[in-house]
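Can't attach files on this board, so I'm pasting raw text. These are the components:
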Amino acid sequence: MSTRPDNTHKFVRTHPSWSVWLRRPPVVALSFALLASYAVFLLPSAETESSLLFYLNINLFILYVLFCTGNVLADGKKPESLKMLVALALIAIMCWLFYRYSGAEWHRLREFFFNWEKLQGKWWILWQGLEVTLLLAFISGIGSVLIGLLVAILHTLHSPTLNFFLRVYIDVFRSIPMIVIMVFIFFALPFMGISLGSIVTTVLALSLGYGAYATECFRAGIESVHTGQLEAARSLGLSRWKTISKIILPQAFPVVIPPLTGILVAMLKDTAVASIVAAPELLKRARELYTSETNPTPLVAAALIYLMVLIPLVRVVNVLENKLGKKRSR
Amino acid sequence: MNDAETMIEVVDLHKHFKDLHVLRGISTTVKQSEVVAVMGPSGSGKSTFLRCLNRLEEPSSGHIYIEGVDILAPYIDINRVRTEIGMVFQSFNLFPHLTAIENIKLAPMSVRKLSDKEAVDRGMALLEKVDLAEKADTYPEQLSGGQQQRVAIARALAMQPQIMFFDEPTSALDPEMIGEVLDVMRNMAKEGMTMMVVSHEMGFIKEAADRILFLVDGEVVEDGTPDHIFNRTTHERTLEFLSKII
Amino acid sequence: MADPASNKNGTARLADLKAKAGYVPVIRRNGFVYAFLSLLVLYAIFLLPAKGSPETLDLGRIILFCLLLLVWAILIFTDELKPEKMKTVIVFTIFIIAAWLYYRYSTARWGEMGFLFFNLEMIQKAWPTLVEGFWTTLLLAVCAAIMSTIIGLLLAIFRSFENRVLNFFIIAYVDFFRAMPIIVLMMLIYYALPFMGIRLSAIVSGILALGLNSSAYVSEIFRAGFLSVKKGQIEAANALGLNPIQTMRYVILPQAFRVVIPPLVGNYVASAKDTALASSISIIELLKAGLSQKSLLANPSPLIFVTALYLIMFVPLTRFSGYLEKRMKASQRQVRL
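---
Top answer:
Structure tokens for the assembled complex are below.
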């Protein structure tokens, strides 16, 4: 007895919706079937001469794999277990592709990459290298923080002449790559009558270079303190130095710490560059061993040591930055 | 009862969030030009209920009929349904990278395929209506909360919807701005818009609402006129809630 | 006000201040500044060691002199009452003194300075190699940028699916490449992989190392961009009936781009700077070209020229990316208010 006209036409889908169509189970199943047949029939064999066509073919396959898996993973309505399966399949396919097409001779992995016997009795060399690396990072860390703090405070004096020169310092050292600074000090300055050893060169280059970054970071911290704070302090009659040390710096430090940690960790990473100017740090030591043993195991070991030291630090920086981000958005 | 007047019909609507059973079988109907207020303690599922009706949340089971059409059917294009239902959010959700008038004309132009001129004309008329014509070219961040919410209402109205949903439209506003938003809503009610409003603004509800749905723990515990709910209810949970908010 | 003692105390302090009106601390007085200056001059005349390469003990005396000079300068700079002109004069004085000290104590052969450092003839000889090096640097930077953008974007997209297994691998990938120094990665790829039968040319190794390293950062940048678009924005777009593509086109991308572009540009600039590391695996890019020409011609002019070139290239780029980031932060601040 309904008096209502049928309104269905108002809401029925009138044009095909690709995203909906692509996510239907039969279409998904078909896409994976196509994927399998592509892998079986169209992928080149591993022995094929690597030509442009060869790479195009593999890249096309990778794109198609990403499309098929992404199609399932992006669908909110697919069951979690299926997504897990697809994710594992994706990882497996990627590993298989690398295994098959990288041209690697896997049986040599043990002999040349993880041949620890070659390093027996020589670990102390790498260990010494690590000590030098950490020492370089420590001294340059202190140097760059001191430079950064000094320049940032001088910046708050708002003297135009001084600011011009400070700006030049920051611009120059932020713009030149670290390796160029080191090479310049080590190879060009001796012609000017200044000969510095490789250790001094490294410390000087890292301190000056990262001092410029630290300056920017301290300045941002100081600027993050509201001008109202400054006015309040000055109206209470605090001197300029008291204002900086008692009001601004304590408030700026929580803002400064996360990016500063990031800068110091980046500096620790950049100590590896010092091997170019023959500072006896970890990478340099590993390269010497690599040459004397004609076996890349020392390089691999050095890389692993770098990872062991740096991954925790990178994670710490990540956590600190996330915390700051959350605080800011609040 | 004339069937043609029924705009929304909800039958046994359930919604689960993982283990949480948020809506436990809600059934109700909303007729044309009716203003229905949805009230209830926090966590009772008011917002989820509203968001299920235009499928911003996917209902777990049940049926929803808009103008007699089951919108959960697979052949339905939910975007066409949504163009018939305007929605106003608690946090405004204006697009921060667009000016007020751009916010309003975006959907009419890209969904309804209006020309730029038509869309701007319609948008300006609506801004006139919410008393913000002079703010057409300002960005949301330069508007006050009340102004932002009025632009959001104009944005929803620009699609010329049959139904309007309001999800706590005034709870993120400073007290002095609530009035201007409620005025706009009151005018819409007078003009005969079908409205569902999640709100605790007693004055507005008493004056403008035809019915109140009172939700507790995902169930409708009372369904009646404002007069009935506010003055003659005997239901324990309702009384408890009312004593808290008055 | 209620406490008479504090009131009295307050009056007393006021009287003190009145008595001291016009009081300037000793170290701020002009007399002190000039006394300090004359002390410095006396130090320079009597205590600084003679011209020539200094002994260790003499080096200490020179350093002490520099420190005293610095203290004197800071005393003047931290004084608001001193005129700006005076400060300007002092900055230049310090530069002159530094140059004088350098002239006096370095063992540089001044007669050959022009020949050694700004020798146009040498630069001319090195020119073809340097130009080649420049193009190699550009090639490295552009290829690494393209590679890192593609990989980074794909990683960010797959990360947004929030699948636990995938996330584990993606996070491991990102951490690995963020923790690995680029130069170590380059050496692993160029020197170690051939032992396993993977023989890549130097230039491909360089691009690979730079691109992989940068892709980790790019993926984090894109992820932050996706996360920055609030859920309410997508809901509002849905409620207006925009389809997923329209939502992406009109709502998500314009907002994400504003967040993504500044750090992305910064990352490309950093990556372009890192191309200089490729000199360590004997790629003849700009730095290596300068270095090799320096040893070939036994004259540092090419190296000086290359350093200057890096400055000319990267000062504007660094400034530009800094400007973009500042602008983004300013606009974020506005949103918060």
